[in-house]
Amino acid sequence: MNVVVMRAGSWGSTLAGLLARNGHAVTLVAPNRALRDELLAFRENRAALPGVRVPDEVDIVASAEGRVESAEMVLFPGPCDRMREMARSVARIGWDARVAVSAAKGIEEETLLRMSEVLAAELGASPERIVALSGPSFARFVGLGRPTTVVAASASEEAAASVQRAFMGRTFRVYSSRDALGVELGGALKNVIALAAGMCDGLALGENSRAALMTRGLAEIARLGIAMGADPHTFAGLSGMGDLVLTCSSRESRNHHVGEEIGKGRRLDEVLADMITVAEGVHTARAAVELARRWNVEMPITRQVHAVLFEGRAPEEAVASLMMRDPKPEHWS
User: Fold this and answer.
1) Given 178, 206, 240, which residue is the final one in a domain?
2) Is residue 332 a contact partner of residue 231, using CB atoms and an 8 Å limit?
């Protein structure tokens, strides 16, 4: 299969390498000249992904022009705030690939659209030609060949199956799903809960607190997803519970890192200024609060994360607010 990967960040480079090792003809687009020169010289993004080699078979170029026209699959690895721009560039060239794949986990802040919806709008494509790839998958471990399992979701079983076949290998297992809504919501909203888990660890509250936060975080993610029409079972799967457990419990997580630093007393702008990669949960927190309002769904953890990030609330106050809420029965609705 002829595949174009639209951005040579850590995730894009990793997935390009994975596809190349599976025997596909892969073009990796690296518009940033310094990064492109580094990848061509060393076959490695030494700042963001040291030790993970981009195979020689991957063709690294400055632009998708001349490549997208013959592509059977175009992969959009994010970040989310660049998704619309990337899709527009492909549409201007003239996109007619069989399938477009979103591998980014977030919700567009201004429109509240999921990434597959952004791609569909900009590419002029039906949902049946868009696939969301999500699940517990840090780029470094995928690149190093550690066993990883994800899910490919689309309104079209055929499109999801084609992505499943393209990515499946000895160390990368892919399940398929028709619930793109649930898969994308789980992948996006767990980043907000991971910010909260990081704050919990930054405050040194202990593992009891983190376990409770993850469990109740999953409950509110599922509550919103079900209200919007997602399959409840999706949130117990790889893109729900699986990704939530990984992102909330590992210091490899960018979102956990941001939350932890804030829990230790640093300001959000200071933390973000020190990062070379993107913590998608920061933007998604704003979108999630608005989605909860529109769908009349209670999301107390998400609301407190938003208050800490953007309203000046201290993390300790957020914890107290959550603990002192009115007594309730435990259920998903």
Assistant:
1) 178
2) no
CATH number of domain containing 272: 1.10.1040.10
Runs of H (alpha helix) within 172-299: 180-202, 207-228, 243-249, 254-263, 268-273, 281-294
Prediction pTM value: 0.95
- For residue 177, what are the β-bridge partners? 153
Spatial neighbors of 178 by CB under 8 A, at least 6 apart, are 153, 154, 155, 157, 160
Residues 152 and 263 grouped into a single domain: no
What is the residue range of 210's domain?
181-323
* Confidence (pLDDT) at 132: 98
- Rg of the chain over CA atoms, in angstroms? 19
| Identified catalytic residue from 105, 190, 264, 328 | 190
Could you tell me if 125 and 65 lie in one domain? yes
Domains: count for the chain: 2
Could you report the per-residue pLDDT of 248-289, keeping only the tens digit for each? Answer: 999 899 999 999 999 999 999 999 998 878 889 999 999 999
Tokens of 229: 């029409």
Instruction: Identify whether residues 18 and 52 lie together within a single domain.
Output: yes
Give the per-residue pLDDT at 331: 73
The DSSP element (H or E) to which 86 belongs, if any, is: helix 83-93
Query: Are residue 258 and residue 202 in the same domain, yes or no?
Result: yes
What are the C-alpha distances in Å from 183 to residues 39, 68, 78, 153, 205? 32, 27, 16, 7, 30
CB atoms within 10 A of CB 15: 25
> Does residue 110 fall inside a structural domain?
yes
pLDDT score, position 332: 53
pLDDT < 70 positions in the chain: 332-333
Q: Is 190 a catalytic residue?
A: yes
pLDDT at position 209, please?
95
pLDDT at residue number 264:
96
107 with 143, same domain: the answer is: yes
Amino acid at 192: V
198, 275: one domain? yes
Q: How many residues does the chain have?
A: 333
